[in-house]
Amino acid sequence: MDTEERRRGILDTARREGSVGVNALADLFKVARETVRRDLHVLEEHGLVRRTHGGAYPVESAGFETTLAVRTTRNVPQKSRIAAAAADLLGDAETVFVDEGFTPQLVAEALPQDRPLTVVTASLAVATSLAGVEKTSVLLLGGRVRGSTMATVDHWASRMLSEFVIDLAFLGANGISREYGLTTPDPAVAEVKAQALRSSRRRIFAGIHSKFGAVSFCRFAGVGDFEAIVTDAGLSSAEAQRYSLLGPQVIRV
């Protein structure tokens, strides 16, 4: 196995398993740990993985995206705290857009149920979770359903969304960086997110710390487009300060 084949094997393993460790990879590919570290360094430079202490995890890209089912099993306590803190920023909003993804779904479930609220969403999971809430009206955007995320996309969803003026949008992303803004792998998803941005008076990003510094294929927003960024304490205070200099309040929970 040559170097390129080994690196492709490492990437395939990371995408299949969700994360990889240096020691396990060294055993799997019968090479030295330092060789694996060099491979991970190159893969990180190419934007395909993010290194961690002792290993790496895959970055979502045009060629790879984790499913909603996988996302519901990872970092759930952190995502729940983020969602609760984001929902606390609702203020006097009466109409809300809730993005696709597991963290936005948790935001939706954390919204108050004792006051009238209209929720617009492309997420079938969000619509299902809120459908039985007495004082919440749910508007589900039409369109093609992406099986991996169980959300609607394409021009039907964007066109319907363009007809609304929404008080507050809760948005997620596959990656957020100071240089490239908020990104996602699929152009169809990016267009729905971009339209939600255009249709909303206020915008809040909610996402776990591992998304920071990651860059995917399609840019749909800049960091400065948001009034607040809500994440967990895994994002360092120094890095949070750098993001806040671009405009939004950064909340770490």
Walk me through this protein's architecture.
This is Lactose phosphotransferase system repressor. It holds the Pfam family DeoRC. InterPro entries: Carb_Metab_HTH_regulators, DeoR-like_C, DeoR_HTH, NagB/RpiA_transferase-like, WH-like_DNA-bd_sf, WH_DNA-bd_sf. By secondary structure, the chain is α/β, with parallel strands linked by helices. It folds into two domains: 1-56, Winged helix-like DNA-binding domain superfamily/Winged helix DNA-binding domain (Arc Repressor Mutant, subunit A, Orthogonal Bundle); 66-250, Rossmann fold (3-Layer(aba) Sandwich), CATH 3.40.50.1360. 38% of the residues lie in helices and 25% in strands. It has a seven-stranded parallel beta sheet, with helices on both faces. A three-stranded antiparallel beta sheet has the order 1-3-2. The chain has a three-stranded antiparallel beta sheet with strand order 10-11-13, covered by helices on one side. α5 packs across α6, α6 runs parallel beside α7 (124-130) and α8 runs parallel beside α9. The radius of gyration is 19 Å and the shape is elongated.
